[in-house]
Structure formats: C-alpha cells, structure tokens
Amino acid sequence: MNFASDNVVGVHPDVMAAIAAANVGAQGSYGADEYTARGLDALAELFETDIAAFPVLTGTAANSLCLAAMTPSFGGVLCHADAHVMVDECGAPELFTGGAKLIGLDQPAGKLTPDGISDRLAQFVRGEHDPLPSTVTITHATELGTVYTPDEVGAIAEVAHGRGMRLHVDGARFANALVSQGCAPADLTWRAGVDALSFGGTKNGAMALEVVVLFDRALAEGFAHRRMKTAQLLSKGRFLGAQLEAYLADGLWLDTARHANAMARRLAEGLDAAGRVRLPLPTQANEVFPIMPAGLFAHLEASGAHLYEWPGVGPGTDVIAEGEVFARLVCAWTTTSEQVDELVAAVAGWDG
After folding, report:
1. pTM of the full predicted structure?
2. What residues contact 126, with CB distance under 8 A and at least 6 apart?
3. What is the pLDDT tens value at each position of the chain, 352 positions in all?
4. Judging by DSSP bridges, how do beta strands 287-288 and 291-293 pair with one another?
5. SS3 readout for the chain
6. What are φ and ψ of residue 282, in 5° steps?
C-alpha cells in the first residue's frame, strides 16, 4: 500500500523496452540521434504548433531553466506559496536565474487567481527598489491535486501579459491535469497563453524524462547553451529521446495518467464512504488529501501503508483541529484497485 508518491514506482515496460532498444548500436551524441528527433517531432505534433523543446533529466532543472530564460536576474517570479519551485527546489530557480526573487502568494486550493496576482502586482510601487515582475508560474496539477481549466489559465495569462510578464507552467503532472479536463494539450498551454512548459514524464511512467517546451520561440535564443552550462545536456541523449518517443506513442502517457486518476477517484470515494476522514479538496488528478485523526494515520502506517503528513492545507480549505493530520496519498500508473481497496478497508477497520 505505497501511496507516498508517484515517484516511488518503476518504469513502464514500453519505456524500458525503448531504452533497451536504444542501447543497441551507435547513434549521434548529445541528442543528435534518431530517437530524439522522432520524439521531438511527436511532441510538436501533440501540441499542434511549432515549438522549441529540450529534454532534461529532472523537473527541477526544467523549471529552473524555463524561469532563467524568462526572468532577468533582477526580476520577480510570482508563484503559489506552496509551489514546488518555492519550497522543494533548494533555491535552484534563484541560482539558475542569477538571483531573481520568488514571490509566493497564499491563495486557495493551491491555485493562483487573476485577482490575487493583480493584487500582488499592485504592491510593486517602489520602482527599481522592487524586483521587476517578469514571470508568473503555475503548477498543473497543483501541489494540492487541483487543476486549472483552460479558461483559468487564459485569465492568468491575460493578467501576466498585460503587465509585460510571461507565463510558465510546471507540468510535472501535466498528463494528469490534461486527462481530467478532456481537452487538447494545446488548449491548456499555448492557446491559453502559456509561454513555456516543463513537460513531465518521470512521475507518469518514464525513468527520467522532463522536457522544456518553449511556445514563445524567442525564449529559445541561447537556450542550448543555457542547458549545457547547467549540466543538463546528456551525452547519450538518445536514452532521453527513446523515453520520449515511447511515452507519447499510441497515447501511452494519457493512458497511464487516466489510470492513476481513476485510482485516485476510487480512493477518494472509498475514503468518503468509510466516514472516518474529511476530504476538503476535490480529487481532480491523482492525489487525495484527507484530514484524519492522528490515531488513524498511525494505524495506517502500522498496517503497512505509506503516505505523507502534508505541511498544511492553505487558505480556503478546512481547518485542521488538534489531534488531526492532513495527509497526502498519491496514486500512480501502477496502483491497483486491490491496493486502493486494502487501504480503504484499513481505514474502515480502525477502531479508534
């Protein structure tokens, strides 16, 4: 019953087979290989537009490289206060940008809003004494498992672009967000005004695959050198290209995300029916966030379940009372209905 993260599971067999196939023979190095070429072509076809795309090894690298291309060293990046770039990347965005300032906004359910962004921008009144507002970054799906609609993304883009800023999306779980909306990838990105996307694959069946996708082609100028300088140009780049090609082939990336999301919905429905927890947030992607008695949390851990106590729910959600725990459970492409039902049974069987 490992619901700790979608990072803890293995690699999809189709992706692993593609890595093994790429291991045969010789190919050009540093991404000059047939696998990378085909994978990037498939990615451009997926987004229905001309893109500049750069495979990298980690989500932190993808986010930090994007923000560095979009933000000067004296700039400001508006993000959610609980965003991965804000609390989980050890200052990498600040390092890669040469010192730009991340500005976290406390807003409900893990999502930024146009009004919230506008209100914060109105506080930049000190001229050159303030960082220059340069970039807005949103996470999709968010750190609380919530999802932006295309209209919500578009409204944020309108505010950002109206101030001469750019919009970046941390898409570590982009596939999970996309399938929950039932729309085209373009609808959640460039058609809605997104300038750059960190396209994630690692959490959804790949071994190590993130892609910087630049819809604003002006951002691509010098980006190859930026990737090289930050040690993200893999010499045997065909192994990234092979992952990308297999990940996108026949909609594999959507199938794995749909399964993970379906397991999360099953989990949320089971927990709700058990009546032992509160669910303050909608289950829109592959994460479930119950508030439960601390005794139940301990019981689940003793029963062999792996889950996290999450730092907090943020404004707009239930208050955690003394003796309660806010928990996160994540379903992955490997999660089975039997595993979900076993955890729900452990919740229902608690006699605390």
Report:
1. 0.96
2. none
3. 899 999 999 999 999 999 999 999 999 999 999 999 999 999 999 999 999 999 999 999 999 999 999 999 999 999 999 999 999 999 999 999 999 999 999 998 999 999 999 999 999 989 899 999 999 999 999 999 999 999 999 999 999 999 999 999 999 999 999 999 999 999 999 999 999 999 999 999 999 999 999 999 999 999 999 999 999 999 999 999 999 999 999 999 999 999 999 999 999 999 999 999 999 999 999 999 999 999 999 999 999 999 999 986 655 556 788 899 999 999 999 999 999 999 999 999 998 7
4. unpaired
5. CECCCCCCCCCCHHHHHHHHHHCCCCCCCCCCCHHHHHHHHHHHHHHCCCCEEEEECCHHHHHHHHHHHHCCCCEEEEEECCCHHHHCCCCHHHHHHCCCEEEEECCHHHCCCHHHHHHHHCCCCCHHHCCEEEEEEEECCCCCCCCCCHHHHHHHHHHHHHCCCEEEEEECCHHHHHHHHCCCHHHHCHHHCCCEEEEECHHHCCCCCEEEEECCHHHHCCHHHHHHHCCCCCCCCHHHHHHHHHHHHHHHHHHHHHHHHHHHHHHHHHHHHHCCCECCCCCCCCEECCEEEHHHHHHHHHCCCECEECCCCCCCCCCCCCCEEEEEEECCCCCCHHHHHHHHHHHHCCCC
6. -70, 145
